[in-house]
């Protein structure tokens, strides 16, 4: 009696596949998958990961600040540290080239973070860019209260920073890496003296944002330099008016 043919354990179809052991890749599930093949690539990916982490952390910090969940002093310190870390990483040309710009990076990695986006655009903590002022009572009282805690040395430092910045403009120092640090010192020292919104104070912030959007070696044009000088002279006059 003939032996019936052995049945396959599954119903064969025209698309049935039987693996060929000779062509089967050997995969070690315990082996670490490497995203980079060189030290340079690894450093690049580590830097991009740091930037991603900074953006997410900064957005959470901004949210906590707007909800009054963190003291102003602590917020200022943490925010300044994150902004400095971000700027330090972006100084690497390889990282900057791969990063492209903030909008491109956010789109690539599918992140929103609107609060962090605004803070990175301004490049200053909210406590410095928009210091809180006392709004109770007449305006004269606000001015007096805002000056009462300022020392003579703080007033002198703010005045010197204004003069130093204006002198830099007159000497033709028009690049971002020359002007941005000086203007940052102006607004920070001014905020130590007064928190009221004096004439042309907003111009300081506007120019900080403009400079922050430039490349490090990029320079202002002649017309922009003249406008910046005019605006800062007006801001200096407005600042001095708060001292009278």
Summarize the structure.
The chain has 244 residues and is mainly alpha-helical. It is built from 11 helices and no strands.
Helices, strands, pairings?
Blueprint: H1 39-66, H2 72-90, H3 93-99, H4 102-108, H5 114-122, H6 126-129, H7 139-148, H8 152-170, H9 176-193, H10 201-212, H11 222-241
Helix content estimate: 55-70%
The largest pleated sheet is described as: none
Rg from Cα: 29 Å
Low-confidence segments, ≥5 residues, pLDDT <50? 133-146
The ordered string of helix (H) and strand (E) elements is HHHHHHHHHHH
Shape: elongated
Written account of the structure:
With 244 residues, the chain is mainly α. Helix content is 63%, strand content 0%. The protein is built from 11 helices and no strands. The chain has helices at 39-66, 72-90, 93-99, 102-108, 114-122, 126-129, 139-148, 152-170, 176-193, 201-212, 222-241. Helix 1 (39-66) crosses helix 5 (114-122), helix 9 (176-193) runs antiparallel to helix 10 and helix 10 runs antiparallel to helix 11 (222-241). The longest helix has 28 residues, at 39-66. The chain is elongated. The termini are far apart. The relative contact order is 0.09. Mean pLDDT is 83; it is low at 133-146.
Descriptive key words:
mainly alpha
